[in-house]
């Protein structure tokens, strides 16, 4: 226990130092200095770690919240920079690998699809909320995993949507025709949410657990019964980079948790939760799973569909 505490203390000290350096940057736009600091931050947060951010002191909590805000702004600028760079090339889709976190999105969209496939065979309509200027998540699902699905991408930033449409405009007709973009704040979406078989909630929509909870409650109010939510979250030290979605908030939002995936290794940064909209709010609890594995949750009244699967 002693060793674990000192490991956590050393990690928090390192991240605090990186937060201080990032906070001093004149701009968060990509540059050798910005790239170096964020590469060091990701390298510090990705390895598995015993850190539990809910147990941080108030000062470290405040630092973490500000760091998530800085990471969100930097990610938006990084995606805009690469979206501009890629769409200036001939055949942009042949060069997507130039984006530094390309592999993360290739692996993440495959993981999300494979876990989703066990609960939604062939979704006709999918919404991706928080698609950004580089909509890799929905683009890779459309290109590689869901050839007949229509995707509605929502982002509150019209400039991000403009960039995204330009990039997707370079895709082949079969993909282009199935990808639509809408400028909207998630809180303003209501009846339209009832049309989707699956709704993805991007990691950076909602900066705090409270904002995430409110957004999930809003989605629960308007999504169709039986529809599936895929909410991106964070675990361990990665919770210094992204907000955490609390499983209780998924349940309170009217969803039953079907699976939780915390990626081990460094092939994917984001955790994600797959949950089904219930006609009534059921109380859910775990039948036990270790953090490296996906696990199937059960309602207290009975066993949820599907087996406990540990890889
Ligand atoms: C930078 S992108 C990152 C998405 C990432 N590429 C992915 O696939 O998860 C996050 C986007 O979420 C959008 N966003 C943040 N909060 C939002 C909200 N409340 N409603 C709609 N869009 C939002 C931002 O405008 C931003 O473009």
UniProtKB/TrEMBL annotation:
One BP annotation, GO: nicotianamine biosynthetic process
GO function term, MF aspect, one: nicotianamine synthase activity
Matching Gene3D superfamilies: Vaccinia Virus protein VP39
Family: Belongs to the nicotianamine synthase (NAS)-like family.
Keywords for this protein: S-adenosyl-L-methionine, Transferase
The species this protein was found in: Triticum aestivum
Signal peptide: none
Family matches, as SUPFAM superfamilies: S-adenosyl-L-methionine-dependent methyltransferases
Class of this enzyme: transferase
Domain of life: Eukaryota
Function: Synthesizes nicotianamine, a polyamine which serves as a sensor for the physiological iron status within the plant, and/or might be involved in the transport of iron.
UniProt catalytic activity: 3 S-adenosyl-L-methionine = nicotianamine + 3 S-methyl-5'-thioadenosine + 3 H(+)
Enzyme Commission number(s) of this protein: 2.5.1.43
The protein's name in its UniProt record: Nicotianamine synthase
InterPro entries found in the cross-reference section: Nicotian_synth, SAM-dependent_MTases_sf
């Amino acid at each position: 226990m002693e060793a674990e505490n000192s490991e956590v203390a050393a990690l928090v000290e390192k991240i605090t130092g990186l937060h201080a350096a990032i906070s001093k940057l004149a701009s968060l736009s990509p540059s050798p200095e910005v790239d170096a600091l964020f590469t060091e931050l990701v390298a510090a947060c990705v390895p598995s770690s015993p850190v539990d951010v809910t147990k941080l002191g108030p000062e470290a909590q405040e630092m973490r919240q500000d760091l998530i805000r800085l990471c969100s702004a930097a990610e938006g600028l990084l995606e805009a920079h690469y979206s501009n760079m890629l769409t200036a090339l001939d055949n942009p889709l042949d060069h997507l690998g130039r984006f530094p976190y390309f592999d993360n999105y290739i692996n993440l969209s495959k993981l999300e699809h494979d876990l989703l496939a066990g609960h939604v065979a062939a979704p006709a309509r999918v919404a991706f909320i928080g698609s950004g200027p580089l909509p890799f998540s929905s683009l890779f699902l459309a290109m590689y995993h869901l050839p007949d699905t229509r995707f509605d991408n929502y982002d509150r930033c019209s400039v991000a949507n403009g960039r995204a449409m330009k990039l997707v405009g370079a895709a082949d007709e079969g993909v282009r025709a199935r990808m639509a973009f809408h400028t909207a704040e998630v809180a303003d979406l209501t009846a339209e949410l009832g049309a989707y078989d699956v709704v993805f909630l991007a990691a950076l929509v909602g900066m705090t657990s409270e904002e995430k909870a409110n957004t999930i409650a809003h989605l629960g109010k308007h999504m169709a019964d039986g529809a599936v939510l895929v909410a991106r979250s964070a675990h361990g030290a990665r919770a210094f980079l992204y907000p955490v979605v609390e499983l209780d908030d998924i349940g309170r939002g009217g969803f039953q948790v079907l699976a939780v995936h915390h990626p081990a290794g460094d092939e994917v940064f984001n955790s994600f939760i797959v949950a089904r909209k219930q006609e009534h709010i059921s109380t859910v609890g775990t039948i036990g799973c270790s953090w490296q594995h996906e696990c199937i949750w059960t309602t207290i009244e009975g066993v949820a569909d599907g087996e406990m699967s540990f890889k």
